[in-house]
Specification:
The structure is a single chain. This protein is an all-alpha fold and about 325 residues long. It is built from 12 helices and 2 strands; from the N terminus they run ααααααββαααααα. Helix 3 packs antiparallel against helix 4 and helix 7 packs antiparallel against helix 9. It is elongated, with a radius of gyration of 36 Å.
């Protein structure tokens, strides 16, 4: 067994355990174990378990990407500061200042890559198990010869799960079903990438060269699915299609509840929370990451004007001085 096989062996064993476990569950509930729809439901259960287990990795990846976006302006200032300087002293100074920003903010440019690196062996293991089963290959665990044969011979609407768009023995149903699945996979992948790049990106990011590269990938990745999908067996495409729907829903939830600051999604979330009276203003921070505490605005104290004794007596008597007329002059004495 090669190194890759040694790494994938425990992953494939767990995947077969989940797949065979769901297949046994559906057959226990009365479904035909040799029917293609029973295996489709088993693949659905496999997707739900595997992608649910990856949720902590996805949340960690989102938080890491968010932290990198927060420090991006500071990193850009450092890069502009040493732009065009290639001497060893300047490069070392730029590296020190960049690392100081990462240490102060707790961000790490490699943190967003680890979840992807962890997921890659899982996806390889999934493809190996499903592809092997469709070619009547015994697995490393609970996927014995009987179950592998059942999987490879199962069909839906007359289309075997082991057939591909290019290799179908002249079965038109396989070509139609595979073609529809490839198109749906491509569209779902495009929608997933589109909602990220259009709604969950700040205006500053949209003006960067990296964003233009992401816009190119928005069209390249779906085309990759369109070209490579014709070579995947229907069973493997079923997993990818269900997984794409999961990713699309997961991204919608993340964008709705954890949007990128400054993006259209963040503004929409702010408006929703304000309409419900639940919006809390985020803490403002300076360039060093310290929270800015704004002093309360003090109202100017109104000075009390001094009042003379005569005006005070006049105010106390209702505006009329005692013993006088309204004009303030004394009345003449009465004639006898």
């Amino acid at each position: 067994m090669d190194i890759l096989g040694t790494i994938l062996w425990p992953i494939k064993w767990v995947i077969e355990l989940i797949l065979v476990g769901f297949h046994s569950l559906w057959t226990t509930l009365g479904l035909d174990g040799t029917d293609g729809w029973t295996w489709i439901l088993a693949i659905l259960g496999l997707v739900l378990v595997v992608r649910s287990a990856m949720i902590p990795l996805m949340v960690k990846q989102v938080k890491s990407q968010r932290a990198m976006m927060d420090v991006a302006p500071e990193i850009k200032k450092i890069q502009d500061k040493y732009k065009g300087k290639r001497d060893q002293f300047s490069m070392e100074a730029m590296r020190r200042e960049t690392m100081a920003v990462y240490q102060r903010t707790g961000s790490n440019p490699m943190a967003g890559c680890w979840p992807l690196l962890v997921q890659m062996p899982i996806f390889f293991g999934l493809f190996s198990v499903l592809n092997g089963a469709q070619h009547n290959t015994v697995g490393v665990g609970l996927l014995n010869q009987e179950l592998a044969t059942s999987f490879s011979q199962a069909d839906i609407w007359g289309a075997p799960l082991s057939a591909t768009f290019l290799n179908n023995d002249g079965n038109v149903g396989v070509q139609i079903l595979a073609g529809v699945m490839v198109v749906v996979m491509t569209v779902s992948q495009f929608i997933t990438q589109k909602q990220i790049t259009s709604k969950n990106v700040s205006q500053a990011t949209k003006e960067s060269p990296m964003y233009r590269q992401q816009q190119m990938l928005l069209y390249i990745l779906p085309l990759t699915f369109l070209v490579s999908g014709v070579m995947f067996p229907l069973g493997v495409m079923t997993y990818w299609l269900i997984s794409n729907f999961w990713t699309m829903g997961q991204q919608y939830i993340i964008i709705r509840n954890m949007p990128t600051p400054g993006s259209e999604a963040a503004k929409a979330r702010e408006d929703r929370l304000k309409a419900r009276g639940k919006w809390v203003e985020p803490e403002r921070k300076d360039s060093k990451g310290n929270v800015i505490i704004e002093a309360p605005v003090q109202q100017p104290v109104q000075r009390t004007q001094p009042v003379s004794k005569n005006r005070a007596k006049k105010k106390a008597s209702g505006g009329k001085p005692s013993g006088g007329t309204a004009s303030g002059k004394s009345s003449p004495p009465a004639k006898k």
